[in-house]
Automatic annotation (TrEMBL):
Keywords: Membrane, Transmembrane, Transmembrane helix. This is Membrane protein. InterPro entries: YczE/YyaS-like. The chain crosses the membrane at residues 12-35, 47-66, 73-91, 103-125, 158-180. It comes from Cellulomonas chitinilytica. The keyword Cytoplasm does not apply. It holds the Pfam family DUF6198.
């Protein structure tokens, strides 16, 4: 498989799995990922679907890139469209399951969502085709303010979780488990899934440079490359 084909395949596959992981965590009802807490809260007050709010939020966040002078990539645009369009069908499929689900099933569903999210992140970030809207916002603020990745990311996520919780989004043990566990898992997958870039013969430097976004790994760990 050539590098361009692999990168495109990883990007698309990763974004599809990312949407599936979001749906699993939402349906489990044990706590959402930080931005999804806000998405769910807005959805409950507007009557718009979870996927529609996800897409609209991504567009708003992308607009915030303009004063930060961030440049979107192919992967950035794909992130907005693929995840925003697929999360509703995944949620609809999960709604066919018996209700209520046993707690043990919900725990397994949430844990699967967290691991699947880390795998999805490793796939689409490893494709090196551009960060997601929310990671681009974070890296842009880091560049403009000079603050650490950990501080900026934590500040953003605390704000969106707080706002989402006030609006009725679900915050729970899975939210904490995601914050603590997804960073280390992403590192494992990224180390295996990042596509090496070709080297220019004259300089032996990569032909292109695509900065990988960063994520705080939780539990006070140092931030490392990853995405959300």
């Amino acid at each position: 498989m050539t590098a361009p084909v692999r990168r495109g395949t990883q990007l698309l596959g990763g974004l599809v799995l990312y949407a599936a992981s979001m749906a699993l965590l939402v349906h489990a009802g044990l706590g959402n990922m930080p931005w999804d807490v806000l998405t769910q809260g807005i959805s409950r007050h507007t009557g718009l679907s979870f996927g529609t709010i996800t897409l609209l939020t991504s567009v708003v966040v992308l607009a915030c890139w303009i004063p930060l002078r961030q440049r979107p990539g192919v992967g950035t645009v794909a992130n907005v469209l693929v995840i925003g369009l697929l999360v509703d069908p995944f949620l609809a499929g999960l709604d066919r399951l018996p209700d209520p689900l046993p707690l043990a099933v919900r725990i397994v569903m949430a844990a699967t969502g967290i691991v699947l999210n880390a795998l999805a992140t490793g796939l689409y970030v490893g494709a090196r085709l551009g960060p997601g809207p929310r990671d681009g916002l974070m890296t842009g603020l880091v560049a403009r303010t000079g603050r650490s990745v950990r501080l900026v990311r934590t500040s953003i996520e605390v704000l969106v979780v707080a706002a989402g919780w006030v609006l009725g989004g679900t915050v729970g043990l899975a939210t904490v488990a995601y914050a603590v566990g997804v960073g280390p898992l992403v590192h494992v997958f990224l180390s295996r899934l990042t596509v090496p870039l070709p080297l220019a013969p004259a300089s032996m430097a990569p032909v292109e440079h695509v900065a990988l976004p960063a994520v705080a790994t939780g539990a006070g760990a140092d931030p490392e490359p990853a995405a959300c």
